[in-house]
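Q: Hi! First time doing this. I have a protein sequence and I read that you can turn it into a structure. Is that right? Here it is:
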Amino acid sequence: MKEPELAEYLEFLVGRQGQDEATVIAQALRAGIKALYREALVEEYLLGRVPREAVLRELGPERVEEIEYHRDTLRRDVTWGLQGA
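A: Yes, that's right. Below is the predicted 3D structure, encoded as structure tokens:
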């Protein structure tokens, strides 16, 4: 099954939301930039380049706890894996 093209997504959204293409594209651009910003913020936090407080303000405590849980789990898994090597 072929994946729909972006034009098909856009046509669907325009038809369902009753907005013009420019408005839908502007919303998509805004949402995409926000998602990319959050990804970059998490990466910078995990690399120690952004303080935890800044990430808490931007993403909230639940998301930060989730990120830290995954980070700690990965560290434990790597440590466990290296012990058997």
